[in-house]
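Database export, one record per block. Field names are fixed; values are copied verbatim from the stored entry.
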Amino acid sequence: MARKGGRWSRYRHSLLLLTRRDLRVRYSTSALGYLWSILDPLVMAGIYWFVFTQVFRRPVGTEPYIVFLLTALLAWMWFNGTVSDATRAFLREAKLIRSTKIPRTIWVNRLVLSKGIEFLASLPVLAAFAIVAGATVDWELLLFPLGILLQATLTVGVALIVAPLVVFFRDLERAVKLALRFLFYASPIIYGTHDLPEALQPLAAFNPLSGVFSLYRAGFFPDQLDWYQVGVGAAMSVALLAIGLLVFKRSERSVLKEI
């Protein structure tokens, strides 16, 4: 038991050390630093807000629409950034990975954690827009941490699948980028699942991000909370995590030889 505790302690220490290094490298070379982590989603949110509310005036989502957008868009940046970086997780750090004996899952989990910290750091921006836009806050805001847990589970699972496979199939990196672009529009980010045709709404639950966004939005828009989506999304996230761990474990030795 003590040995397992010591192993977990070393793993956690190494994970935090690598995550801190990633964040330091990312922001030490930038004059704007933290602002860059929120500028991209803010620009995207501004564009979609303008297009849907000022140009087409098409009713999607719920008012205030900018808050509706940001609650999902900021979370999407966490998922998208992690999975994109996971395609280069082993190739970028090949020499360091081969020369150290720390568990190789750290090289994926550090991406999930660093992008997750950026997501948490962007929440004050969401709060500011909610205040300015006059969004109401309900008790369902307490479900926000559950959304974070669910998204972390999903993101780790997908990243653990992608990271080793790209080592063997280099074209998969481009395929993942295309898949993420498709997933952006297939996920309820600029719209809600209630905006979909009734026949498609039950199918939307099989996109695990639907349940995640449902939990994030519930605090401002209680009608967006759909426990069916959350339940299906949670089951799929756990399944993807199990698959990711299995794929990673079975491919680890081959990955070390390939890189």
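Remark 1: The chain has a mean pLDDT of 88.
Remark 2: The two ends are 34 Å apart (CA to CA).
End of record.
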